[in-house]
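TICKET: design request
STATUS: open
ATTACHED STRUCTURE:
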């Protein structure tokens, strides 16, 4: 690790806190407009053990908000493109890229207890619900992102306990699902969310944006999705540094 890479972080956190941060093990599920920025924020802040998980490839529609998405990376696996970028930031970091997804069918493949922090940046309802339930049963500290689409104002982004989130359609859908199935998270957990709720505007595009895993495709932009991701990164940093 470059001797000067984390001087500014060290001045803010102190040597002991920065050392703790370098030793924690973090996993991020989902490397879209939220998770990719979270990964960047963590590695630039001194996290050196990070696992990133995503089963998708970079498409043109990702470029407006997803950190590794550029005209040069279209068609590449998100997880591997993200790993490459993070190692350019810190070549000594331990970055594990997994081309896959967290779902009821794959959950047994991931040992959440092997991590200190589990970050949920998944945007599909069933997979997100599964991760919430299993992460809350694990020994890891768990933070989750609610919906970052249909929002334009990053100053409205906030952090609350899951059951206190209001005005977020994704959180509402998760709560309905838990109540309908009679299965609930075993503990409370903190979420990043925003009460802002805009509508999609009429827009003609030549690109096919249909995704069978999602109920709807909604507009989203980097100023808000990046704020969600960086807020998640800050939550890990402050908790690990004991600040």
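STATUS: resolved
RESOLUTION: sequence designed for all positions
ATTACHED SEQUENCE:
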């Amino acid at each position: 690790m470059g001797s000067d890479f984390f001087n500014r972080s060290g001045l803010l956190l102190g040597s002991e806190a920065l050392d703790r941060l370098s030793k924690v093990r973090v996993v991020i599920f989902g490397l879209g407009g939220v998770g990719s920025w979270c990964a960047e924020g963590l590695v630039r802040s001194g996290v050196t053990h990070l696992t990133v998980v995503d089963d998708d490839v970079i498409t043109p529609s990702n470029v407006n908000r997803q950190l590794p998405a550029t005209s040069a990376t279209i068609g590449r696996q998100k997880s591997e493109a993200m790993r490459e970028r993070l190692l350019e930031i810190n070549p000594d970091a331990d970055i594990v890229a997994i081309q896959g997804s967290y779902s009821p069918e794959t959950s047994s493949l991931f040992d959440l207890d092997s991590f200190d922090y589990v970050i949920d940046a998944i945007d599909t309802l069933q997979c997100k619900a599964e991760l919430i339930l299993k992460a809350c049963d694990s020994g890891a500290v768990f933070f989750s992102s609610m919906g970052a689409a249909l929002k334009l104002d990053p100053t409205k982004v906030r952090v609350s306990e899951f059951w206190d989130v209001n005005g977020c359609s994704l959180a509402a859908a998760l709560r309905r699902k838990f109540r309908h199935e009679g299965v609930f998270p075993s503990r409370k957990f903190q979420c990043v969310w925003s009460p802002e709720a805009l509508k999609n505007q009429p827009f003609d595009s030549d690109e096919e944006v249909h995704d069978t895993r999602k109920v709807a495709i909604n507009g989203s932009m980097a100023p808000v999705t990046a704020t969600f991701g960086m807020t998640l990164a800050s939550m890990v940093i402050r908790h690990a540094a004991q600040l």
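CLOSING REMARK: Strands lie at 25-29, 49-54, 94-99, 117-120, 141-145, 158-161, 190-193. The helical segments are 7-13, 15-23, 35-45, 78-89, 125-137, 169-181, 222-240.
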